Amino acid sequence: MTKMPNNFLWGGALAAHQFEGGWNQAGKGPSVVDVMTAGANGVPREITETVEPDKFHPNHKAIDFYHHYKDDIAMFAEMGLKCLRTSIAWSRIFPTGVEEEPNEAGLQFYDNVFDELLKHGIQPVITLSHFEMPLHLAREYGGFRNRKVIDFFVKFAEVCFNRYKDKVNYWLTFNEINNKMDVYNPIFLWTNSGVVVHEGENPREVMFQAGHHELVASALAVAKGKAINADFQIGAMVSHVPIYPYSSNPEDVMFAEAEMRERYFFPDVHVRGYYPNYVLKEFEREGYHIVFEDGDKEILRNGKVDYLGFSYYMSTTVKSDAQEKNDGTVVNGGMAKSVENPYIQSTDWGWAIDPTGLRYTLNRLYDRYQIPLFIVENGFGAIDTVEADGSINDNHRIEYLEAHMQAVKKAVNYDGVDVIGYTLWGIIDIVSFTTGEMKKRYGMIYVDRDNKGNGTMKRSKKDSFFWYKNIIETNGKEL
Ligand code: BGP
């Protein structure tokens, strides 16, 4: 039976704001996500003006990793993780984003976490910006719509690269930089870029301008990082949802292809170092005025990423003559003209379960870019039940993961795709990003905490904990 390649990075993935808690500890400033309330039963999360004490902001305490990190990391080690992907909360290091000097207590916290991981042989894989921009930059500068924010980000990146150069080798610049292409859902532009679209503005034009600044910021950070440690592997991170045509009708095929460009635009620039023609044509056609500065082309060319990280949860299917959904309603990934795929089941949150779509994605991305790929998010969000004896039987999660990991194995061992690793999203239960709830759980470790923030915070192992431990120990031989 075949295994995965030696050194394959089996791991778990998290984001600071969704699990750390300690939102105002040791000098940390509020971030864009700290002013978001929890949604409930389909009601979207609200972005409040500032932190409002009478409202529940679920990320403030999250699962309080801030005070449990030693015990949590010991559990990750017991599972055998080779790496842990997490982020450095930007506002822990620069509380408002504009300080001259970084916050030493914030830096020290990550030293403690990384040392603890390394002590257990777990390699940190670090995202620099996972929806954690200091609130001040969003409120006072308009986030990445303002070019000045590039400098603040690059300074933050440089501080992190210098401080952790001997502890971290794999970096990612912006988490899911492309999810803001869904401009009708305001939480994406807000969390990705610190941007609010005003009355009378064209949201897509605003999105492209902010996106341009982020692409420049990412490229500058890559170049800085490489100058600090030439061995760093610095990647981009995109959300990838493959889009299938509903039928063999050439109109459906062409429509699906055009929608795929919504997924490809950001990685095209990150990997190739220049803008693709289809976007330049759109700017011309739609009359978008996107400000590029002299030198931007060169910056993008000199800041190409080493690898492409991506999240994969689902596929979507489109039909060229379906009724357009551009009102913020999420149907299978929020794509315009999405329809049900008759061959695919969905999760309780309507996310299509499609393991073959992951193999398809790996092949398409590798054919397009020819650089190593890293699956930095994949997982199954579900409601878990604690049995009377304390056990948590999450067989659905195991089935989902097994099928997806088998797809990765085929892509690697049969198709020859170069895959660095696989980090399971939400290895321990955390606050869900889109809903702000705790009931949508991904973890292999259960955390006793509910949607309102009640619970003991006790950690318990789910059945999947033991299953994944065995997969890692045998390096995927049994998949
Ligand atoms: C991605 C984000 C994560 C995350 C995950 C699952 O978009 O990078 O931060 O949480 O999706 O989404 P959710 O938590 O809404 O189920």
UniProtKB/TrEMBL annotation:
It holds the Pfam family Glyco_hydro_1. SUPFAM superfamilies: (Trans)glycosidases. PANTHER family: ARYL-PHOSPHO-BETA-D-GLUCOSIDASE BGLA, GLYCOSYL HYDROLASE. One of its GO terms (cellular component) is cytosol. It comes from Paraliobacillus ryukyuensis. The active site is at residue 377. The lineage of its organism: Bacteria, Bacillati, Bacillota, Bacilli, Bacillales. GO terms for biological process: carbohydrate catabolic process. This is 6-phospho-beta-glucosidase. Keywords: Glycosidase, Hydrolase. Belongs to the glycosyl hydrolase 1 family. InterPro entries: GH (IPR017853), GH_1_N_CS (IPR033132), Glyco_hydro_1 (IPR001360), Glyco_hydro_1_AS (IPR018120). GO terms for molecular function: beta-glucosidase activity.
